[in-house]
Amino acid sequence: LERQLILLSYFQGC
Amino acid sequence: MLELRLVQGSLLKKVLESIKDLVNDANFDFSSSGFSLQSMDSSHVALVALLLKSEGFEHYRCDRNTSMGMNLGNMSKMLKCAGNDDIITIKGDDGSDTVTFMFESPTQDKIADFEMKLMDIDSEHLGIPEAEYHAIVKMPSAEFARICKDLASIGDTVVISVTKEGVKFSTRGDIGTANIVLRQNTTVDKPEDATVIEMNEPVSMTFALRYMNSFTKATPLSNTVTISMSPDLPVVVEYKIAEMGYVRFYLAPKMEE
């Protein structure tokens, strides 16, 4: 099973 | 006052075609050095970043930084009315709620202007940090498009693995599995046909093919595409626009549960 990550977790707070 | 004249108008048409299905509305940020756009798709899985530098325009005037919210579907409808050889001028006035696209035929015997309503868009402006990538693959953009299309007929996700042997694109689905390996190949007649693999460390990541296939709509913009990967970072799929800038797509990976 795969979970799609989202970009907010990478770019938030930048 | 904003006035940008692009002799190679087809470029702007291609840019819109490459991003309009991913992003519905976006703010175009104009400054004296060029214009840019940054927007995530509605599910926050992918992000498009566009840069077109002022040097690429025959005439570029932007008196003060301004941001214009546009519906990309509507903008695409208007730009489709420009001929492929047409010169496109974008015009805007301070405080106006419209933008004008002017299309001139190369022989100047047909001139059209289309005025489009602007919109207010609340956009979260994300800083995209510069990153060091484990692996950067440069390859012909048409080959990448072909691979993504072929794999999508078998499965929903692609595993992209870079080792010193080459770059492998793999998928699996109900009917079976598929693996496509490209080896570094720099002994080609034309540099744009080369596959170049810069690898600091091996990397293997999984992505949704639906998004990858959407990114390949930018193929007409560039003969080559660059795929930059590091574990725990979004992949960057970049199409350079000759002497003008780029369209970059960022895509969050899929992780095993």
Can you characterise this structure?
- The complex is a heterodimer of chains A (14) and B (257).
- Chain A has one helix and one strand, in the order βα.
- With 14 residues, chain A is of the alpha+beta class.
- Chain A is rod-shaped.
- The relative contact order of chain A is 0.24.
- With 257 residues, chain B is mostly beta strands.
- Chain B is 14% helix and 46% strand.
- Chain B has four helices and 19 strands.
- In chain B, the strands form three sheets. A nine-stranded antiparallel beta sheet of chain B has the order 6-2-3-4-18-17-16-10-14. Chain B has a five-stranded antiparallel beta sheet with strand order 5-1-7-8-9, covered by helices on one side. In chain B, strands 13-12-11-15 form a four-stranded antiparallel beta sheet.
- In chain B, strand 7 and strand 8 form a beta hairpin.
- In chain B, helix 3 packs antiparallel against helix 4.
- The longest helix of chain B has 12 residues.
- The radius of gyration of chain B is 20 Å and the shape is globular.
- Chain B starts with a strand and ends with a strand.
- The model of chain B has no long low-confidence stretch (mean pLDDT 95).
- The interface between A and B is medium-sized, with 13 and 22 residues.
- Strand 1 of chain A pairs antiparallel with strand 19 of chain B.
